[in-house]
Write a structure and sequence with these properties.
By secondary structure, this protein is α+β, with helices and mostly antiparallel strands. It contains eight helices and eight strands, in the order βααββααββααββααβ.
């Protein structure tokens, strides 16, 4: 796996003066939920981190989803963390598409493992099966479950106030080789060159290896730009630099994409 240039990824900006996030705290942090920002003690990774990614589609009843998710599912994930072996859990909720319309997806949960082998080992445990079997009890709109690997330099989990995230989910392109060449040589450096103007504090890039059942991935890549607050995100997405980055997407994203705004719900 070719790792994309990491020279433009900077450490997180100080968050002490960040404004409180609109919709930033939706009650996910109930007793027994996974420690979204704390990482368990783990050996040095054998390769790029692997991520079990669950993208929830819009449920039939969001209130019922949220109650079960908070009160039952997240405590179940937390209780199985040691057995499954994930070291970090990131939970986000999509508030809108980038154009302000209703979001294409509802939520995302990402479980981080030190390596792809660790992820596959964890997915084979009874604890993971129990967590997977529970999804049908509340994910009434369906979901997409994938296995991803990091293709950017490792980043630390967020601390302090919940962050706002520009999330771009790429669908399978018509030519993956052409996509990867342009992405690595042109698009990623363009994002980096505009980082200061746009104001994001870190970027996380991942590539989907497969669906969780081992079949070809339903989605291709994901890019997440983290901002210290929703106000900072809105300011950043209105800049000429962001518009330049967005305008570059049709040059390589031949399979289409979903652009969303998310908030952390740790």
């Amino acid at each position: 796996m070719r790792r994309l240039p990491g020279w433009w990824l900077v450490t997180s900006l100080a968050l002490a003066t960040a404004a409180a996030m609109a919709c930033g705290k939706s009650g996910d942090k109930a007793a027994g939920t996974p420690a979204d920002t704390a990482t368990a003690e783990a050996a040095a990774p054998a390769g790029p981190a692997a991520i079990v990614t669950v993208i929830y589609h819009i449920p039939k009843d969001t209130a019922a989803f949220e109650k079960y998710y908070r009160d039952v599912h997240l405590p179940l994930v937390s209780a199985s963390q040691q057995e499954i072996g994930f070291t970090r859990a990131d939970l986000t909720r999509f508030s809108s598409n980038l154009d302000g319309s209703k979001p294409a997806y509802y939520r995302q949960a990402e479980l981080y493992f030190p390596s792809l082998d660790d992820a596959k080992k964890g997915m084979a445990t009874p604890g993971f099966k129990k967590v997977a079997d529970d999804l049908a009890n509340f994910a009434s709109g369906g979901l997409t479950g994938l296995l991803a690997v990091e293709t950017s330099d490792p980043a630390e989990a967020s601390e302090g106030e919940p962050m706002a995230i520009v999330t771009v989910i790429y669908k399978p392109p018509t030519d993956a080789g052409v996509f990867e060449k342009y992405y690595a040589e042109t698009h990623v450096p363009l994002v980096g060159a505009n980082q200061q103007e746009i104001g994001f504090s870190r970027a996380e890039l991942t590539k989907f290896e497969s669906n969780l059942d081992g079949s070809a991935p339903a989605l291709y890549r994901q890019a997440e730009l983290y901002f210290p607050s929703m106000a900072a995100l809105k300011k950043g997405t209105a800049t000429p630099g962001f518009k330049q980055v967005a305008g570059d997407l049709p040059n390589f994203a031949t399979g289409g994409l979903e652009g969303l705004i998310a908030v952390e719900t740790r």
